[in-house]
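Why predict the complex rather than its parts? Because the way molecules touch one another can change local conformation, and only a joint prediction can capture that. The input here totals 1230 residues.
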Amino acid sequence: MNYSRRAMLRSTSCGFGYLALQALRGQAALAEGSGKVAPGTGTPQTRARAKRVIFLCMSGGPAHLDTFDYKPQTLKKKHPGSVYKFQQRGESGLWISELFPELSRHADQLCMLNGMHADTGIHAQSFLQLHTGERLRERPSLGSWINYGLGSENENLPGFISLNTSKSTIYSSAFLPSIHNGTPIGVNGEDMSNATIRNVSSEHLSLRAKRRQLDFVQMMNRGHLAQRATEDRLESVIESMELGYRMQTAAPELLDISTESEATLERYRVGQFKKQIGTCKPTDFGRQCLLARRFAEAGVRFIELNHGSWDQHKNHRRDLEANCRATDAPIAALLDDLKDRDLLKDTLVVWGGEFGRPGLTPENGKNETGHNARGFTFWLAGGGVKGGHVHGKTNETGARAVEGKIHFRDLHATILDLLGLPPNDLTYYYAGRQHRLTGPEGGKVATEIFA
Amino acid sequence: MSRVALLGSCSLIIATALCPASAYGKKPFRKDIEFFEKKIRPVLVKHCYECHAADAEELGGRLRLDTRQGMRDGGESGPAVVDGNPDTSLIVQALRYDGIEMPPDEPLSESVINDFVSWIRRGAPDPRFAKPAKVERPKAPSTDLWSLQPVENPEVPEVRDRRWPSDPLDQFVLARIESKRLRPTHDAEPRILARRLHVDLTGLPPSIREVDEFERDYRQRGGLAVEDLVDALLARPQFGERWGRHWLDVARYGESNGNDGLGRNPTFPHAWRYRDYVIDALNDDRPYDQFLAEQIAGDLLPSDSPTQRDRYLVATGFLAIGSKPAKAMNNNFAMDVVADQIDVIGQGVMGLSVACARCHDHKFDPISTQDYYALAGNFTSSETMWGVAANEKLTAPPTDLHVLEAAPKVLPPKDFVETVVVLDSNTGKPKAVPKSKWPAGTPLAMGLRDRDMPADCKINIKGDAKKLGNAVPRGFLTACEVESSVAAPIGVDPKQSGRLQLAQWLTSASHPLTARVMVNRVWMHLFGEGLVRTPNDFGVYGEQPTHPQLLDHLASRFVDNGWSLKRLIRTIVLSRTYQLSSRASAELVEADAENLLWARHSLRRLDAESLRDSMLAASGQLDPTPADGSIIRHRDILVNRAGNLHLPSRHRSVYLCYLRDSAPPELAPFDLPSFVTTVAQRDVSTVPGQSLHLYNSPFVIEQARHLAQLATSHAKSDDARVRMLFRRTLCRDPAPAELRGAIAMVNAAAGEFGDKGTEKAWEALAQAMLTTNEFRYVD
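Output of the joint prediction:
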């Protein structure tokens, strides 16, 4: 076999890219089977270990050394490392900081990636790269790629939802078909209690009147279609009108958490932590976690949550503690519920931000940290990864990843692989070439962490 | 290993025999060779030959490191070795991971790198004298890419059914259909044809009166009636708004920069002048060659009046309205601006993605890195003027702007106060808005002008502006051969940027791409798909034309007719092919599911702009006059901090504010592009957000209310009201069943609302009419 790369690219363009091209040409994206990618010729499809992803996005650069990457003083001189107390948790004895008492209950579910590293310590660029693989330009987001690869699992909702989200470039489908665009709910750092989907409802007609109205429209549409029997896409428009109609009920219903018990709301800490403390904004992360569970149950493929900012430069300790407190119990409650409902086995939970922070040296009184992109931590849970497991490590001061190094493109590759998508062959032809999430370099799958 | 060793010893003998010792300085020859054999060759063999030797599966960067000459000739990025000068030798930079990173897996040890440094310092003595096999560079004349062959005016093919064609173009279409033993479908009914023509030429639906009149006229005069209608529509100012909007897609028109990567999005307060320029140019039927020349080099064209001068300066906005990544910590910023300019001309005008060649020779198309930087020199020799970038220097350094002479001075409204201000990150207080260098109201325009000292551009190795290779003389693409009308070939005047000559080269009658690409775009807007179905990609990876000869026939006519777009459009819409019905027998559809034969017309969805405009037309709310300027014309601000700036408007959609990353909400759901790069073709996705927009958006509800009021105030009986709604939205009367269904819906809905029941119920019906597929699709 002596294929040139050019021939390879061409052949893949008839596999993955081919369907993509069809979609680009305006084939109705909702038509049966579209969006689901057939295995490219010669591309072995891996086994899907997860069906959906919940990404707990911690924007600002969480301090890895004070949370999940334990760095005791091991050198002769005092050196930067962890300044909070760590304890071994669970049967696995995973080291977790005292700042996450609730999450610690789930130690045996967590898979620590302590060898993360990124290209840049510039927030916006690294944040964009975390989401899209590209630092400077608008590219399809991870959630869009996944929906492009797997298609939708539910009939009443979009496949990619981004909660408390910041910029549209973070959830954009860019050049992928727009059906894979993330649907934003809520604005970053603002109160989530009234957050909703654009135009999801209106007061001018009751739902019953809307149903009558839609019945008339569909009667007209079916008559229109009958005279154009060969136009399949008109059929998908008719279906999409119904989906939109159902979303008017389904989405607000999912967003309405008043049906949840008091105990549940308390477990998730819904509506608590309403005061901004330094960089820690009142994102109502509890509500986000509860919504994430409801969307996961409803079959949404990719759900992103946002909390921040973890960019505590000045008042490192105060702000970090506030951030941890605001997210600890909600995340633990989410993991509890996913486990109880047997969803954790095929839901991949991802926690992390655009980079980490350099460590403080204990007892020198310093309380200020900067950015550290050369080594930091992500953790995964559920979705076919090992629990109570540590992969990769940083050096003694936590400044730099030295083992089990994982770049964002490797993380992306690993996530795609867990979902059964071939990371470096999931491509889309655009502007003269094949694009992929893992970029020209490609990503390496961290198979070591697979359960 | 043994093979390598053997080869090594052979070349040693040759080297000893052929090389004068002087070539390597005074030191004993043997010692140098020993050094090479011990320290250098093993490293090359082990770490480099896999990709950089004669037997490499794919030669990396067209560079060979397995011969002495290969290292000196270098590859795409330039010579790998410069004798005696390790610091400028690319191989050392690469080993140091300084810009280029080789070997790619991990850097070699410091001591190995030092060996290379001292070896090169000695003059890089190298006994490997075998002649490198010639590495082929992609060169123009050898290419067999169809789109680079000269446009031939092909003979019009014979057809069996000679009565069917009404224009030569129909013969190309029919000949192919006949060869497949098929027949074209029937002609479109006059009412359907009227709507198709109105929407295609003006972007607006006809009134029912216009449809009725055309139908009568058509029954009497047939084709003559169509000609009259077409001529009338081409003369309407709405033509320029519709077709100008098409060009604005190509031009990636936006009224703000879009996210610069650092979350900032400054407005372009003067971009709207370019929008108006485009609309006017289409209405004036500016010849396409002239239209391009103005946009690429308007500042260099002689003008006879201040008005004309203004127009030319505004036209160069084409190259200045691109979306830029931030300047902060971006060494490549200037070349990012150039990349956008090359891209919009590459894909937009020539249908070729030239941009890849910024970092390496194009993998498929015959475009080399040399070509790229030859083109780039025309733009690096020009000053791109985008304005103050909302006074955020980290986003983009502020630039000058064109000051217009004849355009009127427009002051901000007396009570205008800028509400969107940037907060000082230290104090949290609003920063003062810096004073503009021009008096308030000065008419300004984005655009280009030549630098004082034009110069050729150096190759940026792997696209990195810090790694410079040789300068490439300014020029164009070597793969496109163009006959010069003058004796001398078109070449860049060293005293100018070269943009004027670039425009001349692009618009040369013998340029293989310019006319083909534009003809294809026009076809796409009239049929839903182009003859080439990848309108921005005429390269190896793009699609072949369905009818190559037809494309060339139209391209030849286009150029022969003085590049007139109106004449081109007129020719096509008067063809029998265009006037076919979109309905066809199941047999025909099955035989040609993708309509590659054009044996029928196609059903198309109204684009975002046309849908909004049609709703305004139906509700009687459309203000057909052009909007004056833009809502942001006095606002140099960061949009991303401004929330939603958009204001309700009754003007046509083309006049809404096309802020990047903050699209007008009335258009956003229907596949409005991001306009970050040139748009080949609008997507036609079907997503629930569109249904939600139709059900619940304030704009649609508002238009439904106005439409219902028209019906209830002008007609008394239910029947008459329903009829009026049908006539205003669908240009026809309801069928009996539709009438019954509509009245039933109104009555049932009315029962649900108290006092205002009837009014609300008619609004619900009006909204339903605006939502139907019949309203939103064109046959």
